[in-house]
Automatic annotation (TrEMBL):
NCBIfam families: TRAP_fused. Residues 125-402, 458-656 form the TRAP C4-dicarboxylate transport system permease DctM subunit domain. The chain crosses the membrane at residues 21-41, 53-70, 82-101, 113-129, 136-153, 187-204, 311-328, 349-368, 374-392, 404-430, 450-467, 488-513, 548-566, 573-602, 638-656, 663-683, 695-725. Keywords: Membrane, Transmembrane, Transmembrane helix. It comes from Aquisalibacillus elongatus. It holds the Pfam family DctM. This is TRAP transporter 4TM/12TM fusion protein. It comes from the Bacteria.
Length: 742
């Protein structure tokens, strides 16, 4: 990611503070340390330190970095860190260290914190909310304050919202010193899982992988109707599946794809909207799925590999829907693809940078086949990524010198385990010398797979270098070195800040929800309302799922309302705590309920007027941000009915005992339904719809929701009839146009 792109992301997220000199060095140092710290923990853990300490340090580093990077308000044009933000950074560090030191104190363990401990807890809450305001914006802070107000005013609330638990000291204690507040599930997932994958995505991007994904997608789809837009969808999906940030993804890929879309005839706001939809929907696509997949692991206790296994088919279907939306848009406006001469050779592209796909395959191997922990899988993938990237250019430049360095590195990797044992013995003896117990027998750790990752990385880099020489292919455009690696570490820390503080603030919400019992009350309200609505439906129109349908519709509105203006991570946490239990009460499987709220939470993030990816792509496309955001919502809405489909038919989530025939049938019918719905939105299939045809298209899409063989068969026949009618209609129009032209 170049400086211009990073500057755009920083400004969108609320920071136009451009530091230089010692100030810039200070920020880079903290950011790189933060990334290296998380990389070490992912690979080796923290001997002698508990997980709670890690969470506190994780949040503390984020707070320190936020007050160094983000100004108190935007557009101040600051070129140095003002004294008040230096004080805030130092105070945040002090608060974090105090809580680490006092977490096992008798006053905390007994639930009777001292007055000073209450003050520090209150200070932490204020620091988190202020950091959230600077990075994420006001909406999440306002929602948090509303929940806090509810906690203290519960005794004045009517009906089921009444509670009498609004004690100030209890609130501070629960939110800051217990595990169901700030240091609850969201921040745990952020520290343990999310950060390391953001680091993986940032390092991969620093090697130039984003441009490679775009070039490969253009090669595959560029020459077809609306090719650059289709390539944008595919490239953004590939990058979005690992980047963890829809805004960063939109800027990275949009810089290249939006001008190409405009060049072939897409309107500026449409080009930006396509990129918004494609970038945001990457949060559905494994292996990372934004931050939600890892938080889902903690909230549902479902193994990670089962979650990504269930998420893969709906995610692909979502992108199929966006691709058809693009296809219909191109057909409506007569937009063709790119000339084949403008496209790079696929074989040369793969030989030039195809090695960057290897770390992704390694990641999937460890996650899915070996079922290694998420942290270790990411750590091994980063290890092989760095080795390949560092040696790829060097083998081609000077084979002999690179082989010497490779042999030295390989030797160190294979003997370091023995070296670590000797170093640990020496460090352990220092305890007696200085009268401390700081060092343990496992202070320095090593794992055997690291050496094999180094070996595999060197082999891959060597093979590609030899292949490039033989086929006379240029080396990758990015010559990877220390500067690029440090840049990746810095970008990872910056990109993680919005997620970390969003998770911390979401922890406040969950603390209030848990302590006040709000989630069960909300469930009773929705269930009661759904039952009342179902009773109003005529008997001949009701099914066994009528009440569930109403609950799902109400859930959609709740997701869109609660998620408006929030980052996806915070949205999912809130919805998972409040809304998902409603669906599980109706017998919906836990994983299905969580995927349902995730999909509509992401759609809420794409809803104007608060839509950061739209502001990013609008700037690149030179279009209005609201108009671009509307287009982004439009293209995302191709998958609007998809959560209803997998809720009523769990087969496509691969969580049933259905045969492969049933799975294929479910995928086919879901695809037809999405195509029908996309054509309804675009008012086009093979030619423009008559209003009656458009109604038929949406009826077909709705019929596929119900898991019923008879309705599916009738919908297929109806859609086949619609296609046939559209075919003859378009032929007649072509004949008329030909006759008029002659």
């Amino acid at each position: 990611m170049d400086e211009k792109q990073q500057k755009m992301i920083n400004e969108l997220e609320g920071s136009d503070r451009e530091l230089s000199g010692i100030w810039a060095i200070a920020v880079i140092s903290v950011a790189v340390f933060m990334s290296l710290f998380h990389l070490y923990v992912a690979g080796f853990g923290l001997p002698g330190l508990g997980s709670k300490t890690f969470l506190i340090f994780h949040l503390t580093l984020a707070l320190v970095l936020i007050f160094m990077i983000f100004p108190i308000k935007n557009r101040l044009g600051q070129t140095r860190i003002p004294i008040y933000d230096i004080i805030l950074s130092a105070f945040a560090l002090y608060v974090g260290m105090f809580i680490i030191q006092r977490q096992d104190a008798s006053s905390i363990m007994s639930g009777e914190p001292t007055g000073y401990e209450i003050f520090i807890g209150l200070a932490l809450i204020v620091l988190v909310l202020e950091a959230t305001r600077r990075v994420v914006g006001y909406p999440l802070v306002i929602i948090a304050l509303v929940f806090v107000a509810y906690f203290f005013l519960g005794e004045f609330m009517p009906g089921q919202f009444y509670h009498s638990r609004g004690d100030f000291e209890r609130f501070i204690y629960e939110i800051t010193y217990r595990n169901n507040g700030i240091f609850g599930t969201p921040i745990y997932a952020s520290a343990q899982f999310v950060f390391i994958f953001i680091l993986f995505g940032a390092l991969l991007e620093s090697t130039g992988a984003g441009k490679m994904f775009i070039d490969l997608a253009l090669r595959a789809f560029g020459r077809y109707k609306g090719g650059p837009a289709k390539a944008s969808v595919v490239a953004s999906g590939m990058m979005g599946s690992i980047s963890g940030s829809s805004t960063a993804n939109a800027v990275t890929t949009g810089t290249f794809t939006i001008p190409l879309m405009k060049k072939v005839g897409f309107k500026p706001h449409v080009s930006g909207g396509v990129e918004v939809a494609a970038s945001s929907s990457g949060q559905f696509l494994p292996p990372i799925m934004g931050a939600a997949a890892f938080i889902m692991v903690e909230l549902t206790s479902i193994p990670y590999y089962e979650i990504i296994q269930s998420a893969i088919i709906p995610a692909i279907l979502c992108y199929v829907g966006i691709l058809f939306m693009v296809h219909f848009e191109a057909s409506k406006n007569g937009i063709k693809g790119m000339d084949k001469s403008e496209l790079a050779s696929g074989r040369k592209l793969l030989m030039q940078q195809g090695y960057l796909l290897i770390p992704i395959f390694v990641l999937l191997y460890f996650l899915v086949v070996e079922r290694v922990s998420v942290n270790n899988s990411a750590f091994y993938s980063i290890t092989i990524l760095l080795v390949i990237a560092l040696f790829a250019h060097r083998f081609k430049e000077s084979m002999a010198r690179a082989l010497v360095f490779a042999a030295i590195l390989l030797g160190i990797a294979f003997v370091f385990k023995d070296i670590a044992e000797l170093l640990n013995i020496g460090l352990y003896k220092l305890n007696d010398l200085f009268g401390t117990s700081f060092f343990s027998s496992e202070t320095i750790r090593w794992k055997d797979p690291i050496a094999y990752m180094v070996l595999l990385g060197i082999i891959v880099a060597l093979v590609f270098a030899l292949g490039q020489k033989k086929l006379k292919v240029d080396a990758a455009p990015v010559r990877y070195g220390m500067r690029e690696m440090l840049s990746g570490f810095e970008v990872a820390a910056r990109n993680s800040l919005s997620i970390i503080v969003a998770c911390a603030t979401a922890g406040i919400l969950i603390g209030v929800i848990t302590t006040s019992g709000l989630s069960t009350k909300f469930t009773r309200i929705v269930v009661g309302f759904s039952s009342d609505l179902a009773s109003m439906v005529p008997a001949f129109m009701t099914t066994d799922n009528t009440e569930l349908y109403f609950a799902l519709v109400l859930t959609v509105f709740a997701c869109l309302l609660l998620g408006l203006g929030l980052p996806t991570t915070a949205t999912y946490v809130v919805l998972a705590a409040i809304v998902a239990p409603v669906l599980t009460d109706y017998g919906v499987p836990v994983l299905v309920a969580h995927l349902f709220v995730l999909y509509y939470g992401v759609l809420a993030d794409d809803t104007p007027p608060i839509n950061l990816p739209a502001y990013a792509t609008a700037g690149i496309a030179k279009a209005g941000p609201v108009r671009t955001g509307v287009q982004g919502f439009k293209y995302d809405s191709a998958a609007l009915l998809l959560p209803f489909v997998f809720t009523m038919n769990n087969t496509i989530l691969l969580i049933t005992d259905a045969s492969w025939h049933d799975v294929v049938l479910a995928i086919v019918t879901a695809t037809i339904g999405m195509v029908a719905f996309a054509s309804f939105i675009q008012n086009w299939l093979l030619t423009k719809y008559h209003w009656i045809e458009r109604i038929i298209a949406v009826v077909v899409a709705l019929m596929f929701i119900q898991d019923n063989g008879l309705t599916d068969l009738f919908a297929v026949i109806l859609f086949a009839f619609l296609i046939g009618f559209q075919y003859f209609k378009s032929k007649n129009q072509q004949n008329v146009e030909t006759a008029q032209a002659s």
